[in-house]
């Protein structure tokens, strides 16, 4: 199964992604995690993206696309994956569709965690106290939310138009949200997919 999880920063995508991926036996692939690991290890990629990420901005599409396609070409991703945090721009979404076309595959479902902005800000401020992430101060959080609404919301519309979108209430406990995600995937397993290559 090839899945994408969408939602604003702080919606709990990472937590849900790893649980869902575990149950389905597929790797959860998070671009944010890949970037953070590279920053920590001070790799050339990490050095290049550090300032961008700390300012709450998006890493350029060509950099991000290449990293994701390399990762999706690894053997453990052969039979499926759960993408977390990618695609995040319409151009990335098209690049991913092209990647899938050349392999005669496609996304099966797009899960969207819905959490109101105010809740997201509260959650991220709390997370910054616990994890000390340098992109979690209030100014950067607001910037990340603004960019999310501008650039990433159109991706849910694309997914909706293609009949792939499964929106889930992202408020509540981790277990509650997880149960909703699994129910949404199971319910839609009975929905016939739309033809491939139709926008
Ligand atoms: P995340 O952990 O998914 O919230 O990602 C943390 C940060 O990494 C984001 O605020 C962006 O700066 C960067 N990032 C992650 N994924 C992408 C992407 N698909 N495109 C551009 N930048 C990204």
Describe this structure as you would to a colleague.
The chain is of the alpha/beta class and 199 residues long. The chain has one domain (2-188): Rossmann fold. It has helices at residues 13-24, 31-40, 44-54, 61-72, 90-102, 117-131, 138-161, 174-189, and strands at 2-6, 28-30, 81-84, 109-114, 165-169. It has a 5-stranded parallel β-sheet, with helices on both faces. The two termini are 20 Å apart. The chain binds adenosine monophosphate. Adenosine monophosphate is lined by residues 9, 31-32, 35, 52-53, 56-59, 64, 85-86, 88, 92, 135, 144.
* Radius of gyration, whole Å: 16 Å
- Described by its quaternary structure, the protein is single chain
Report the CATH superfamily: P-loop containing nucleotide triphosphate hydrolases
CATH class descriptor name: Alpha Beta
In short, what is this structure?
The protein contains 8 helices and 5 strands, in the order βαβαααβαβααβα.
Features:
8 helices, 12% strand, five-stranded parallel β-sheet, disordered C terminus, 5 strands, Rossmann fold, alpha/beta, 199 residues, binds adenosine monophosphate
């Amino acid at each position: 199964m090839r899945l994408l999880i969408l939602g604003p920063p702080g919606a709990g995508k990472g937590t849900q992604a790893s649980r869902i991926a575990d149950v389905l036996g597929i790797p959860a692939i998070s671009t944010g995690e890949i970037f953070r690991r590279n920053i920590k290890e001070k790799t050339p990629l990490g050095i290049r993206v550090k300032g961008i990420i700390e300012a709450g901005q998006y890493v350029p599409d060509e950099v991000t696309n290449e990293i994701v396609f390399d990762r999706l070409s690894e053997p453990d991703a052969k039979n499926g994956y759960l993408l977390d945090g990618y695609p995040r721009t319409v151009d990335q979404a098209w690049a991913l569709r092209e990647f899938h076309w050349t392999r005669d595959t496609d996304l099966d479902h797009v899960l969207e965690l819905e959490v109101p902005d105010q809740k997201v800000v509260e959650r991220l401020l709390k997370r910054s106290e616990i994890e000390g992430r340098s992109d979690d101060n209030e100014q950067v959080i607001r910037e990340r939310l603004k960019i999310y609404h501008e650039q990433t919301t159109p991706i849910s519309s694309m997914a909706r138009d293609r009949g792939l979108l499964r929106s889930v209430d992202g408020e509540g406990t981790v277990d509650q949200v997880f149960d909703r995600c699994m129910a949404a995937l199971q319910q839609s397993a009975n929905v016939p997919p739309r033809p491939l290559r139709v926008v």
